[in-house]
């Protein structure tokens, strides 16, 4: 499965869980809200119920006061009640939410109406000034009031209010419990889902860290080894984007490996070729040399001055050719035969070279004490001796001076051979390391043009680099690096 | 006593230079020349004709030759008990060529490097050859 697909699936899953958490919480907040509305409503119901009850009780007290005292002022609350109670009842009917409660209110209304008609009849007969009214009142008083008709109605109303209020309280308690449960349930769900989310996130993070970062660092190490010349391949069985990267790295490594092998083969063939050719070239050259010598030996009396001159020229050319072939052989031999590697003191080596190469008027200065080095001694000696010989050979000063310095660069040393010679023109700088290239006319200056080519090949064969820094009239400085051997 | 020397060498110039070197050294020997290993073997065994069969004291052997190289020649000669007293010297172009073999593996007595020069100073190897030739 591709990493992109895995990421999409993973994140979609997380988003899904968060959506669930969101909706659960949403539902809870809706419930809380409805409950708040209900509570408000319920409070209003209770408040209304109390107000109603109070009005009704006041009407009853006013009615009783009037009957006892015959004072009309007692009837004021009664009349007020007649106006306000119907309003309160209508309001209450709207507030009540359940059918049972509405039924209770209906019976309160009914009872109240009964009481009104009862009280109304008593009040109106009492107010009546007609003579038979006293009789009627007496009769009503005896049959109704004394029989406690009003009181019974009042008791019923009070009881009804009591049940109505109680029911409302009970309902409220029930709803609070439900809400409480709902809150704790939501909290539980939220916590569980959040924990799951966190765990999944961690797992995903860890997984992707392992599949991506782990493998990237593996690949980094892998490509470092490739750049170090180790053409290995990295196994990877997962089938995702990284596998494609790994595969292309593997392919690169393989291509490099084949190319390098081919290159090495070609180089080896070339070296072999140069070696064989130069070796075989020596035979006829030696023959020619022999013949010239024999001509001189066999016919000493027939050699005219002109002939002697020509013979000398031939010998000179034979010698040069011989040197060139030897140089070519020497050049081809570098890297073919590994010489013995040992640890030695470079100061000692340079002092030996100084004695061998530097003329009495010249000087070789070692600017800083050179290190002990582990290397093919013969090769490093060749490098120094060729560079120093060149510096002396081409020097135009009366007192040639050569300075040797070095720098420790950690993995390798950088050496510098600097002279006070004539310097090299910029345009020739890249030519000097080519084989058989010389900057002087061969007849004027005997040189085969292999010295620097050999130096370059030795340095590069030992994984070093060489370059030259030179200014006309100010001398040249040859820099080369030599990796440290473990 | 006059020594018998067999020179197995294909290059005229090298034969000539051996002859001249001997002359310069005033070596008086019976010099026979074969132009390749096969011819040299024929001379030793007399397989060409009984009259030309020789028993040399010293063989000077070139390595690179047509028909039968010096190395092949040596491999055969070393199998004959009757040739065990012949001193054999390799005539080689260079130390590098000689480096490929060694005196021990070839079972020879020494080597001389071309071009031949018996004028002083000579190398220890050449001195060994001159000793064998003169004494």
Verbal overview:
The complex is a heterodimer of chains A (about 475) and B (about 140). Chain A has helices at about 5-70, 75-95, 100-125, 130-145, 150-225, 240-300, 305-335, 345-355, 375-395, 450-460, and strands spanning about 340-345, 365, 370-375, 400-410, 410-420, 465-470, 475-485. Chain A is an alpha+beta fold and about 475 residues long. A 5-stranded mixed β-sheet of chain A has the order 2-4-5-7-6. Chain A has a two-stranded antiparallel ribbon with strand order 1-3. In chain A, strand 4 (about 400-410) and strand 5 (about 410-420) form a beta hairpin. The longest helix of chain A is centred in the middle third of the chain and has 79 residues, at about 150-225. Chain A is rod-shaped, with a radius of gyration of 60 Å. The two termini of chain A are about 45 Å apart. With about 140 residues, chain B is of the alpha/beta class. Chain B has a single domain (about 5-135), classed as Rossmann fold (3-Layer(aba) Sandwich), CATH 3.40.50. Chain B is about 35% helix and about 20% strand. Chain B has 6 helices and 5 strands. Chain B has helices spanning about 10-25, 35-45, 70-75, 95-100, 105, 125-135; strands at about 5-10, 30-35, 60, 85-90, 110-115. A 5-stranded parallel β-sheet of chain B has the order 2-1-3-4-5. In chain B, helix 2 (about 35-45) packs parallel to helix 3 (about 70-75). Chain B is globular, with a radius of gyration of 14 Å. The relative contact order of chain B is 0.17.
